[in-house]
Amino acid sequence: MSAIDYDAFREEVRAFALRACPADIRETVAANRKIGRAEWSRWQRILYDHGWGAPSWPVEHGGTGWDVRQRFIFDEVTAECECPPQYHHGLRHLGPVLIEYGSQEQKERFLPPILTGGQWWCQGYSEPGAGSDLAALKTRAVLDDGEYVVTGQKLWTSHAHEADMMYTLVRSGDGARKQDGITMLLIPLDSAGVTVREVRTIDGWHHVNEVFLEDVRVPVANRIGQDGQGWEIGKFLLDRERLGSANTAPLTQYLRRTRALVRDALPGRDNEVRRRALEMRLAQCEAELAGQRELGRRAVATVAAGQPLRLQPSVLKAASSRIQQRVSEIALEVQGAVAASRYSTTGNEAVDGVEWVQNYMFHRARTILGGSNEVQKNVIARDLFGS
Protein backbone atom coordinates (compact mmCIF):
# COMPACT_ATOMS: atom_id res chain seq x y z
CA MET A 1 0.00 0.00 0.00
CA SER A 2 1.49 3.34 -1.09
CA ALA A 3 1.91 6.18 1.38
CA ILE A 4 -0.71 8.92 1.30
CA ASP A 5 0.43 12.33 0.06
CA TYR A 6 -1.44 14.47 2.58
CA ASP A 7 -0.33 17.75 1.02
CA ALA A 8 -1.72 16.69 -2.35
CA PHE A 9 -4.91 15.52 -0.68
CA ARG A 10 -5.29 18.89 1.04
CA GLU A 11 -5.06 20.69 -2.30
CA GLU A 12 -7.50 18.26 -3.90
CA VAL A 13 -10.07 19.01 -1.19
CA ARG A 14 -9.49 22.76 -1.49
CA ALA A 15 -9.95 22.76 -5.27
CA PHE A 16 -13.15 20.72 -4.99
CA ALA A 17 -14.61 22.84 -2.21
CA LEU A 18 -14.03 26.10 -4.04
CA ARG A 19 -15.42 24.67 -7.27
CA ALA A 20 -18.36 22.62 -6.05
CA CYS A 21 -19.86 24.30 -2.98
CA PRO A 22 -22.59 26.69 -4.21
CA ALA A 23 -21.73 30.37 -3.88
CA ASP A 24 -24.94 31.23 -2.03
CA ILE A 25 -24.24 28.59 0.63
CA ARG A 26 -20.66 29.78 1.09
CA GLU A 27 -21.92 33.37 1.36
CA THR A 28 -24.37 32.34 4.10
CA VAL A 29 -21.59 30.61 6.04
CA ALA A 30 -19.20 33.55 5.60
CA ALA A 31 -21.85 35.98 6.89
CA ASN A 32 -22.41 33.94 10.09
CA ARG A 33 -26.04 33.38 9.15
CA LYS A 34 -27.94 30.27 10.20
CA ILE A 35 -28.12 27.41 7.72
CA GLY A 36 -30.90 24.85 7.67
CA ARG A 37 -31.95 21.62 6.05
CA ALA A 38 -32.23 23.08 2.55
CA GLU A 39 -28.60 24.23 2.43
CA TRP A 40 -27.20 21.24 4.28
CA SER A 41 -29.05 18.72 2.12
CA ARG A 42 -27.93 20.40 -1.11
CA TRP A 43 -24.28 20.36 -0.04
CA GLN A 44 -24.56 16.76 1.19
CA ARG A 45 -25.95 15.63 -2.17
CA ILE A 46 -23.01 17.29 -3.96
CA LEU A 47 -20.56 15.51 -1.68
CA TYR A 48 -22.37 12.20 -2.10
CA ASP A 49 -22.33 12.48 -5.91
CA HIS A 50 -18.57 13.09 -5.71
CA GLY A 51 -18.07 10.00 -3.53
CA TRP A 52 -17.31 12.03 -0.42
CA GLY A 53 -20.64 11.72 1.34
CA ALA A 54 -19.35 10.06 4.52
CA PRO A 55 -15.68 10.82 5.26
CA SER A 56 -15.71 8.86 8.53
CA TRP A 57 -17.51 5.74 7.32
CA PRO A 58 -15.88 2.57 5.99
CA VAL A 59 -16.10 1.88 2.27
CA GLU A 60 -18.45 -1.08 2.68
CA HIS A 61 -21.11 1.24 4.06
CA GLY A 62 -20.71 3.92 1.41
CA GLY A 63 -17.94 5.88 3.09
CA THR A 64 -14.64 7.13 1.72
CA GLY A 65 -12.43 4.81 3.75
CA TRP A 66 -10.19 7.78 4.59
CA ASP A 67 -7.87 7.54 7.54
CA VAL A 68 -8.38 9.86 10.50
CA ARG A 69 -5.82 12.40 9.26
CA GLN A 70 -7.57 12.68 5.89
CA ARG A 71 -10.90 13.21 7.64
CA PHE A 72 -9.35 15.96 9.75
CA ILE A 73 -7.90 17.64 6.64
CA PHE A 74 -11.27 17.45 4.89
CA ASP A 75 -13.06 19.15 7.79
CA GLU A 76 -10.36 21.78 8.15
CA VAL A 77 -10.08 22.71 4.49
CA THR A 78 -13.81 22.82 3.76
CA ALA A 79 -14.23 25.15 6.76
CA GLU A 80 -11.42 27.36 5.47
CA CYS A 81 -13.31 27.56 2.17
CA GLU A 82 -16.52 28.70 3.95
CA CYS A 83 -18.35 25.44 3.23
CA PRO A 84 -20.83 24.33 5.91
CA PRO A 85 -19.88 21.39 8.11
CA GLN A 86 -21.78 18.25 7.21
CA TYR A 87 -24.98 17.81 9.20
CA HIS A 88 -23.79 15.85 12.19
CA HIS A 89 -26.84 14.01 13.56
CA GLY A 90 -27.04 11.49 10.74
CA LEU A 91 -23.49 11.26 9.46
CA ARG A 92 -21.40 11.69 12.58
CA HIS A 93 -23.70 10.56 15.35
CA LEU A 94 -26.24 7.99 14.28
CA GLY A 95 -24.32 6.61 11.29
CA PRO A 96 -21.33 5.35 13.31
CA VAL A 97 -23.73 4.01 15.96
CA LEU A 98 -25.62 1.99 13.33
CA ILE A 99 -22.37 0.72 11.85
CA GLU A 100 -21.14 -0.37 15.30
CA TYR A 101 -24.37 -1.59 16.94
CA GLY A 102 -27.12 -1.74 14.30
CA SER A 103 -28.60 -4.83 12.67
CA GLN A 104 -28.03 -5.53 8.99
CA GLU A 105 -31.63 -4.55 8.28
CA GLN A 106 -31.18 -1.24 10.09
CA LYS A 107 -28.01 -0.49 8.16
CA GLU A 108 -29.68 -1.21 4.83
CA ARG A 109 -32.73 0.83 5.78
CA PHE A 110 -31.21 3.95 7.36
CA LEU A 111 -27.64 4.45 6.10
CA PRO A 112 -28.38 5.16 2.39
CA PRO A 113 -30.77 8.11 2.98
CA ILE A 114 -28.33 9.58 5.50
CA LEU A 115 -25.63 9.44 2.85
CA THR A 116 -27.68 11.23 0.22
CA GLY A 117 -29.10 13.82 2.62
CA GLY A 118 -32.62 12.62 1.96
CA GLN A 119 -33.48 11.70 5.56
CA TRP A 120 -33.01 14.12 8.44
CA TRP A 121 -32.33 13.11 12.04
CA CYS A 122 -32.40 14.79 15.43
CA GLN A 123 -31.18 13.68 18.87
CA GLY A 124 -33.63 13.04 21.70
CA TYR A 125 -31.36 13.02 24.75
CA SER A 126 -32.04 15.96 27.09
CA GLU A 127 -35.19 16.21 29.17
CA PRO A 128 -36.49 18.59 31.82
CA GLY A 129 -34.31 17.70 34.78
CA ALA A 130 -32.08 15.41 32.71
CA GLY A 131 -29.73 17.46 30.55
CA SER A 132 -26.13 17.18 31.68
CA ASP A 133 -27.29 14.41 34.06
CA LEU A 134 -28.50 12.27 31.19
CA ALA A 135 -28.82 9.17 33.36
CA ALA A 136 -31.73 10.88 35.16
CA LEU A 137 -33.99 10.68 32.08
CA LYS A 138 -37.60 9.70 32.73
CA THR A 139 -39.13 9.09 29.30
CA ARG A 140 -40.57 5.60 29.69
CA ALA A 141 -40.82 2.81 27.11
CA VAL A 142 -42.95 -0.27 27.91
CA LEU A 143 -42.94 -3.39 25.74
CA ASP A 144 -46.37 -4.34 24.42
CA ASP A 145 -46.94 -6.99 21.75
CA GLY A 146 -43.70 -6.45 19.82
CA GLU A 147 -43.69 -2.66 20.21
CA TYR A 148 -42.44 -0.13 22.73
CA VAL A 149 -45.05 2.31 23.99
CA VAL A 150 -43.14 5.53 24.68
CA THR A 151 -44.33 8.36 26.92
CA GLY A 152 -42.35 11.39 28.01
CA GLN A 153 -40.80 14.67 26.94
CA LYS A 154 -37.54 15.67 25.29
CA LEU A 155 -36.15 19.21 25.51
CA TRP A 156 -33.58 21.29 23.57
CA THR A 157 -34.01 18.95 20.59
CA SER A 158 -32.05 20.65 17.83
CA HIS A 159 -33.66 20.64 14.35
CA ALA A 160 -36.61 18.45 15.37
CA HIS A 161 -38.86 20.80 13.35
CA GLU A 162 -36.88 19.88 10.21
CA ALA A 163 -36.25 16.23 10.99
CA ASP A 164 -37.93 13.04 9.79
CA MET A 165 -36.60 10.80 12.56
CA MET A 166 -35.31 11.04 16.12
CA TYR A 167 -32.79 8.72 17.76
CA THR A 168 -33.54 8.84 21.45
CA LEU A 169 -32.73 7.34 24.81
CA VAL A 170 -35.64 6.02 26.88
CA ARG A 171 -36.02 4.18 30.14
CA SER A 172 -37.23 0.64 29.48
CA GLY A 173 -36.26 -0.82 32.85
CA ASP A 174 -34.63 -0.13 36.20
CA GLY A 175 -31.48 -1.32 37.88
CA ALA A 176 -29.02 -0.69 40.66
CA ARG A 177 -27.56 2.34 38.85
CA LYS A 178 -29.35 5.18 37.07
CA GLN A 179 -27.51 4.17 33.90
CA ASP A 180 -29.18 0.75 33.92
CA GLY A 181 -32.36 0.11 31.95
CA ILE A 182 -31.77 2.76 29.25
CA THR A 183 -32.48 1.83 25.63
CA MET A 184 -31.94 3.63 22.30
CA LEU A 185 -34.91 3.79 19.92
CA LEU A 186 -35.41 5.28 16.44
CA ILE A 187 -38.73 7.15 16.29
CA PRO A 188 -40.38 8.57 13.15
CA LEU A 189 -41.51 12.08 14.01
CA ASP A 190 -44.73 11.68 12.04
CA SER A 191 -45.82 8.89 14.43
CA ALA A 192 -49.16 9.24 16.19
CA GLY A 193 -48.63 10.83 19.60
CA VAL A 194 -45.54 12.92 18.67
CA THR A 195 -45.79 16.70 19.04
CA VAL A 196 -42.92 19.07 18.23
CA ARG A 197 -43.07 22.56 19.72
CA GLU A 198 -40.60 25.38 19.14
CA VAL A 199 -38.50 26.67 22.03
CA ARG A 200 -37.90 30.39 21.53
CA THR A 201 -34.29 31.33 22.24
CA ILE A 202 -32.71 34.75 22.67
CA ASP A 203 -30.67 34.48 19.46
CA GLY A 204 -33.87 34.70 17.40
CA TRP A 205 -33.11 31.54 15.44
CA HIS A 206 -35.36 28.50 15.51
CA HIS A 207 -33.12 25.54 16.16
CA VAL A 208 -34.32 23.88 19.39
CA ASN A 209 -37.64 22.32 20.32
CA GLU A 210 -39.63 20.34 22.85
CA VAL A 211 -40.77 16.92 21.68
CA PHE A 212 -43.76 15.40 23.49
CA LEU A 213 -44.34 11.65 23.26
CA GLU A 214 -47.77 10.35 24.26
CA ASP A 215 -48.20 6.57 23.94
CA VAL A 216 -46.06 6.51 20.80
CA ARG A 217 -45.74 2.98 19.44
CA VAL A 218 -42.26 2.07 18.20
CA PRO A 219 -41.47 -1.37 16.71
CA VAL A 220 -38.79 -3.42 18.44
CA ALA A 221 -37.07 -3.44 15.02
CA ASN A 222 -36.32 0.25 15.67
CA ARG A 223 -34.29 -0.53 18.77
CA ILE A 224 -30.50 -0.24 18.39
CA GLY A 225 -28.62 -2.98 20.19
CA GLN A 226 -30.18 -4.78 23.12
CA ASP A 227 -32.75 -3.61 25.62
CA GLY A 228 -30.84 -1.78 28.37
CA GLN A 229 -27.75 -1.18 26.23
CA GLY A 230 -28.57 2.48 25.60
CA TRP A 231 -26.11 3.99 28.07
CA GLU A 232 -23.18 2.23 26.42
CA ILE A 233 -24.38 3.31 22.96
CA GLY A 234 -25.04 6.87 24.11
CA LYS A 235 -21.52 7.22 25.51
CA PHE A 236 -20.09 5.84 22.25
CA LEU A 237 -21.95 8.59 20.40
CA LEU A 238 -21.04 11.45 22.75
CA ASP A 239 -17.32 10.65 22.67
CA ARG A 240 -17.38 11.12 18.90
CA GLU A 241 -19.49 14.26 19.14
CA ARG A 242 -17.03 16.02 21.43
CA LEU A 243 -14.03 15.07 19.28
CA GLY A 244 -15.50 17.44 16.69
CA SER A 245 -13.85 20.25 18.67
CA ALA A 246 -10.51 18.99 17.32
CA ASN A 247 -11.37 20.82 14.09
CA THR A 248 -10.50 24.42 14.88
CA ALA A 249 -10.96 25.75 11.33
CA PRO A 250 -14.54 27.06 11.82
CA LEU A 251 -13.47 28.93 14.97
CA THR A 252 -10.36 30.21 13.16
CA GLN A 253 -12.58 31.58 10.40
CA TYR A 254 -14.89 33.20 12.94
CA LEU A 255 -11.91 34.86 14.64
CA ARG A 256 -10.61 36.09 11.28
CA ARG A 257 -13.99 37.63 10.43
CA THR A 258 -14.17 39.25 13.87
CA ARG A 259 -10.72 40.75 13.39
CA ALA A 260 -11.87 42.21 10.06
CA LEU A 261 -14.97 43.60 11.80
CA VAL A 262 -12.81 45.37 14.40
CA ARG A 263 -10.58 46.82 11.68
CA ASP A 264 -13.44 48.02 9.45
CA ALA A 265 -15.78 49.29 12.17
CA LEU A 266 -13.09 51.20 14.10
CA PRO A 267 -10.91 52.92 11.49
CA GLY A 268 -8.55 55.82 11.94
CA ARG A 269 -6.63 57.41 14.76
CA ASP A 270 -9.72 58.43 16.73
CA ASN A 271 -10.49 54.72 17.33
CA GLU A 272 -6.89 53.57 17.69
CA VAL A 273 -6.85 52.95 21.45
CA ARG A 274 -10.07 50.98 21.44
CA ARG A 275 -9.16 49.09 18.27
CA ARG A 276 -5.77 48.04 19.62
CA ALA A 277 -7.28 46.90 22.92
CA LEU A 278 -9.74 44.66 21.06
CA GLU A 279 -7.01 43.39 18.73
CA MET A 280 -4.93 42.44 21.79
CA ARG A 281 -7.85 40.42 23.16
CA LEU A 282 -8.23 38.72 19.79
CA ALA A 283 -4.50 37.93 19.80
CA GLN A 284 -4.94 36.23 23.18
CA CYS A 285 -7.82 34.19 21.74
CA GLU A 286 -5.67 33.31 18.75
CA ALA A 287 -2.86 32.09 21.02
CA GLU A 288 -5.30 29.86 22.91
CA LEU A 289 -6.69 28.64 19.61
CA ALA A 290 -3.18 27.65 18.49
CA GLY A 291 -2.98 25.48 21.61
CA GLN A 292 -6.41 24.07 20.87
CA ARG A 293 -5.28 23.22 17.33
CA GLU A 294 -2.29 21.31 18.67
CA LEU A 295 -4.48 19.43 21.18
CA GLY A 296 -6.78 18.54 18.30
CA ARG A 297 -3.93 17.17 16.23
CA ARG A 298 -2.79 15.06 19.17
CA ALA A 299 -6.32 13.71 19.59
CA VAL A 300 -6.40 12.80 15.90
CA ALA A 301 -3.04 11.07 16.26
CA THR A 302 -4.36 9.19 19.31
CA VAL A 303 -7.33 7.88 17.32
CA ALA A 304 -5.04 6.98 14.40
CA ALA A 305 -2.85 4.96 16.75
CA GLY A 306 -5.88 3.07 18.07
CA GLN A 307 -5.40 4.40 21.60
CA PRO A 308 -8.18 5.51 23.98
CA LEU A 309 -8.98 9.22 23.98
CA ARG A 310 -9.67 9.39 27.72
CA LEU A 311 -10.08 13.03 28.73
CA GLN A 312 -9.09 14.62 25.41
CA PRO A 313 -12.64 15.16 24.04
CA SER A 314 -13.65 16.87 27.30
CA VAL A 315 -10.60 19.16 27.24
CA LEU A 316 -11.25 20.09 23.61
CA LYS A 317 -14.94 20.74 24.14
CA ALA A 318 -14.49 22.90 27.23
CA ALA A 319 -11.65 24.96 25.76
CA SER A 320 -13.23 25.60 22.36
CA SER A 321 -16.55 26.72 23.84
CA ARG A 322 -14.85 29.35 26.00
CA ILE A 323 -12.80 30.68 23.09
CA GLN A 324 -15.97 30.95 20.98
CA GLN A 325 -17.66 32.95 23.71
CA ARG A 326 -14.76 35.36 24.12
CA VAL A 327 -14.51 36.04 20.39
CA SER A 328 -18.25 36.63 20.14
CA GLU A 329 -18.05 39.04 23.10
CA ILE A 330 -15.52 41.13 21.18
CA ALA A 331 -17.73 41.16 18.09
CA LEU A 332 -20.71 42.28 20.16
CA GLU A 333 -18.72 45.12 21.71
CA VAL A 334 -18.04 46.44 18.20
CA GLN A 335 -21.42 45.77 16.62
CA GLY A 336 -23.65 46.08 19.65
CA ALA A 337 -24.23 49.82 19.47
CA VAL A 338 -25.28 49.47 15.84
CA ALA A 339 -27.43 46.35 15.91
CA ALA A 340 -28.24 45.30 19.47
CA SER A 341 -30.54 48.23 20.20
CA ARG A 342 -32.69 47.22 17.22
CA TYR A 343 -32.42 43.49 17.87
CA SER A 344 -35.45 41.35 18.66
CA THR A 345 -36.08 37.62 18.67
CA THR A 346 -38.15 38.02 15.48
CA GLY A 347 -38.06 40.27 12.45
CA ASN A 348 -34.31 40.90 12.30
CA GLU A 349 -33.92 40.46 8.55
CA ALA A 350 -33.54 44.20 7.87
CA VAL A 351 -31.16 44.95 10.75
CA ASP A 352 -27.65 45.38 9.40
CA GLY A 353 -25.09 43.30 11.27
CA VAL A 354 -27.65 41.43 13.35
CA GLU A 355 -25.83 38.13 12.70
CA TRP A 356 -23.09 39.26 15.11
CA VAL A 357 -25.67 39.74 17.85
CA GLN A 358 -27.34 36.41 17.08
CA ASN A 359 -23.99 34.59 17.15
CA TYR A 360 -23.17 36.16 20.50
CA MET A 361 -26.53 35.01 21.89
CA PHE A 362 -26.13 31.52 20.44
CA HIS A 363 -22.60 31.10 21.76
CA ARG A 364 -23.86 31.66 25.31
CA ALA A 365 -25.09 28.06 25.07
CA ARG A 366 -21.76 26.63 23.93
CA THR A 367 -20.59 25.92 27.47
CA ILE A 368 -23.83 24.00 28.14
CA LEU A 369 -24.80 22.03 25.04
CA GLY A 370 -23.11 18.71 24.28
CA GLY A 371 -22.32 18.28 27.98
CA SER A 372 -21.79 21.38 30.12
CA ASN A 373 -18.29 22.64 30.91
CA GLU A 374 -18.91 21.79 34.58
CA VAL A 375 -19.52 18.18 33.57
CA GLN A 376 -16.40 18.20 31.36
CA LYS A 377 -14.31 19.47 34.30
CA ASN A 378 -15.60 16.60 36.43
CA VAL A 379 -14.66 14.13 33.68
CA ILE A 380 -11.18 15.64 33.48
CA ALA A 381 -10.73 15.59 37.26
CA ARG A 382 -11.83 11.95 37.55
CA ASP A 383 -9.40 10.94 34.81
CA LEU A 384 -6.49 12.80 36.39
CA PHE A 385 -7.11 12.12 40.06
CA GLY A 386 -9.47 9.14 40.16
CA SER A 387 -13.05 9.02 41.46
Automatic annotation (TrEMBL):
Any Pfam family: Acyl-CoA_dh_1
UniProt domain Acyl-CoA dehydrogenase/oxidase N-terminal: residue ranges: 7-117
Residue intervals of the Acyl-CoA oxidase/dehydrogenase middle domain: 122-216
UniProt keyword annotation of Flavoprotein present: yes
Keywords, in A-Z order: FAD, Flavoprotein, Oxidoreductase
Entry's family note: Belongs to the acyl-CoA dehydrogenase family.
Name by which UniProt lists this protein: Acyl-CoA dehydrogenase family protein
